[in-house]
Design goal:
This protein is α+β, with helices and mostly antiparallel strands. Helices cover 40% and strands 16% of the residues. The chain has helices at 23-27, 36-42, 53-68, 93-110, 125-133, 149-152, 167-175, 181-186, 189-196, 199-208, 237-257, 289-304, 307-310, 337-357, 386-389, 393-399; strands spanning 6-9, 20-21, 47-50, 73-78, 81-84, 119-121, 140-142, 223-229, 260-271, 276-286, 314-322, 325-326. The protein is globular.
Length: 413
């Protein structure tokens, strides 16, 4: 597939979307999120392959290890992006370029020559990220403030090319007549605060003007959720509910692994006619899979009571656990404290069995028939733990026959 247009899809179905596309596919006009059927129409020669998250996570961990052997990794930003601080003599542009070239060479030697990387060097993490995006798939871009590169080398970009300026903020900027980088750099710090509605705007102004600020402090997880596009043969209410149970059990295991409790369950479905249904229910915070299962069944019962929704075929389903609370802030129910402790020990044992012997060794019956239908998904800012969400390859080899061979790919970050 090297050198050919390739699209990656969560399932092999014409109605699903491409979650990633190769450089060659992008040049042919394919965009991330485009439906597979549309991608084939735009580029008849495109090759569609199914996502393999466990392979990507294996490579991610290997790449972090390789980069760490060259430069300290300050922060893992996502599955395909890390940031390293250049301190002391490494802050000199020529030494920084040498370090970047060493990283590229080590990736080629230890991860595979076809795994390309783009590296940006700049006064702070935000501008380094912008620089890394300026030359792909195998770039090395330096933005040197002392040489007048900022903002000169950025003026051809759009404001929305800057991380942290999404469609919403971009719209607010356009309302103020800011539609170019030159106009963005002309804004005062106070004006930036006004656009963002607070201190984030000030931080953005300072970062764009080369101040070396720490990473934005991220709030803790606001929700834990999973969703999936149903394969064609499972686009019916019974199978959709089984898939929801499997997704919920994955989310509950993550909840316990993170030491969190949830006080709200949100369930949603998109139908084949593009209509949607959703419902949510609140309860005393819990991490008990059985309690969450009862809540899911109640919400689905409400959906099935609506004839206009019950007769529609689900295309995509998902669950979200919200109103999260850390374990040290949780107070057990006065009358059910012992029951909660017993349930916690039982579910802890179930989680450990599934970690050691493989996912779905033990599962709640609502997910029966769907235990192989909820693969890992990698979000932009969350890297799943195969040890929690999936059986790892070493254990899989001991308990199952067959399997896929891991191959080389390409990434940029």
């Amino acid at each position: 597939m090297r050198g050919r247009p390739v699209g990656v899809a969560p399932v092999l179905a014409e109605t699903t979307g491409c979650i990633a596309v190769s450089i060659e596919a992008k040049r042919a006009g394919i965009k991330r999120g485009m439906r597979v059927a549309e991608a084939r129409a735009v580029c008849p020669g495109i090759r569609i392959v199914e996502s393999r998250p466990e392979v990507y996570i294996t490579y991610h961990r290997r790449l972090v290890e390789i980069i760490e052997s060259c430069l300290h990794v300050s922060k893992v930003q996502s599955i395909d992006e890390v940031t390293c601080e250049l301190r002391g003599s490494l802050a000199a542009p020529e030494r920084a370029v040498e370090a970047a070239k060493k990283i590229k060479a080590e990736i080629a030697r230890r991860a595979g020559a076809c795994l390309r990387s783009s590296i940006g060097i700049a006064p702070n993490w935000l501008l380094a990220k912008v620089a890394s995006d300026m030359q792909k798939p195998d770039g090395l871009v330096v933005l040197n403030d002392d040489a007048g590169d900022i903002p000169a080398k950025l003026l051809h970009l759009a404001p929305t090319d800057i991380a942290g300026i999404g469609s919403g903020t971009g719209g607010r900027l356009r309302i103020r007549g800011v539609d170019t980088m030159e106009k963005l750099y002309a804004l005062t710090m106070a004006e930036m605060r006004g656009v963002w509605g607070g201190v984030v705007g000030e931080r953005m102004w300072r970062l764009l003007h080369c101040e070396d600020l720490p990473f934005f402090e991220q709030e803790g997880d606001k929700s834990i959720g999973h969703g999936k596009v149903l394969p064609p043969e499972r686009r019916n209410n019974a199978d959709a509910l089984a898939d929801l149970h499997r997704l919920l059990q994955k989310a509950a295991m993550r909840l316990r692994d993170s030491g969190l409790y949830a006080g709200l369950l949100h369930v949603h479905a998109r139908h084949r006619d593009d209509t949607t249904w959703s419902g949510e229910i609140r309860f005393n915070e819990t991490q008990d899979t059985l309690a969450l299962t009862h809540a899911l069944n109640e919400l689905w019962k409400r959906r099935m009571a609506r004839a206009e929704d019950a007769r529609k075929a689900p295309l995509r389903v998902g669950v979200t656990l919200a109103r999260l609370l850390r374990a040290d802030g949780h107070t057990p129910d006065l009358f059910d404290a012992e029951k909660e402790r017993r349930s916690g020990r039982l579910l802890g044992a179930v989680d450990e069995i599934n970690r050691v012997l493989g996912k779905n060794t033990v599962y709640f019956g609502g997910a029966h028939g769907a235990t192989s239908d909820a693969p890992m998904r990698i979000a932009f800012t969350r890297i799943p733990k195969p040890e929690v969400e999936e059986i790892d390859r070493a254990r899989k080899g001991r308990f199952a026959r067959g399997g896929k061979q891991c191959g080389q790919g390409e990434a940029s970050g």
